[in-house]
Design a protein that fits this description.
Layout: E1 22-23, H1 26-36, E2 43-47, H2 53-58, E3 64-69, H3 72-81, E4 88-92, H4 100-107, E5 111-116, H5 122-131, E6 136-144, H6 145-151, H7 162-170, E7 171-179, E8 184-185, E9 192-199, H8 209-221, H9 227-230, H10 239-248, H11 262-278
Parallel strand pairs: 2-3, 2-5, 3-4, 5-6
Antiparallel strand pairs: 1-8, 6-9, 7-9
Helix pairs in contact: 5-7, 7-11, 8-11, 10-11
């Protein structure tokens, strides 16, 4: 039985190049808003308005919404249909090009973000949010289920990697809801998961976030290699200095990156930075 709404007639055809899969199941939209933590009085930024199903429902709870949509055809259709409540402002733009810092200044507050992310840019969007996290309070985002599993993975699991380490450093990640593929139009090949990011200062801070990210990415480039080999020559560090940094941070040089905790990666990047400065 098809439980999706059938009222979205006359809309522009979806664009595969934009990764468009629209959630049109009204009960699920309401559930998303209920579990998201959005409160009356909140002003929300929505990334990817699509057909406006979430936008219109969210407007009943939030004080105001700024909706960002790249597809001019959808914006024109929404305007023609008159679907958006008065407390919704729609803007045309690419979510990857938005300055969250500027938007935060405009609203004079840390941002609260909703988004049903196109699968083809989901990882890029996560890293952008993390880089601009000082301007964001929280984000509730829909991901391909496999991506969500990688976001929430623990050390020692096959899904643990760059995404889990860098995201886990910057935010507390909470799974809110699984959403079956049958509730989207067009129907994607995989299920989705709704995730909440609560951005917070890390327990132990990386002295240089760029060096931290480079350390993690270099280590996982060859995830089956030992840490002493995957980071060989990293930042021009001599092997004995690298081994010393690993040992100092409680990392066995023979360990693979997939078993190294976020805290130990932070310690390692700080140690590498210190060694590089002193050399």
């Amino acid at each position: 039985m098809d439980h999706t709404n059938k009222k979205y007639t006359g809309k522009p055809p979806t664009r595969r190049s934009l990764g468009q899969n629209f959630l049109v199941h009204k009960h699920t939209v309401r559930t998303i808003i209920e579990v998201s933590g959005v409160k009356p009085g909140d002003r929300v930024v929505e990334l990817g308005v699509g057909l406006g199903a979430l936008t219109a429902e969210l407007a009943g709870t939030a004080a105001g919404i700024i909706g960002i949509e790249i597809d001019e055809r959808l914006l024109a259709w929404l305007a023609k249909e008159g679907r958006m409540p008065e407390n919704v402002e729609l803007r045309q733009g690419d979510m990857l090009d938005i300055s969250f810092g500027e938007l935060s200044k405009e609203l004079d507050e840390a941002l609260k973000i909703f988004g049903n992310l196109p699968y083809n840019i989901s990882s890029q969007m996560v890293f952008k949010l993390i880089d601009e996290r000082d301007s964001i309070e929280w984000a509730v985002l829909m991901f391909q289920k496999e991506v969500a599993q990688r976001l929430m993975a623990s050390p020692g699991s096959k899904d643990y990697g760059v995404l889990a380490v860098i995201t886990g450093y910057a935010a507390r990640i909470t799974k809110l809801l699984d959403v079956p593929a049958t509730l989207f139009r067009p129907k994607p090949k995989v299920a989705s998961t709704l995730v909440r990011f609560s951005f917070r200062p890390p327990v132990t801070a990386a002295e240089d976030f760029t060096v931290f990210k480079e350390t993690v990415r270099t280590a996982f480039q060859q995830r089956r290699k030992k840490m002493s080999n995957s980071l060989k020559g990293f930042c021009g560090l001599p092997r004995d200095s690298l081994l010393e940094a690993l040992t100092r941070c409680g990392i066995d040089p023979g360990d693979r990156p997939e078993v190294v905790s976020i805290e130990n990666f932070v310690c390692l990047s700080n140690s590498i930075l210190k060694s590089r400065k002193s050399s």
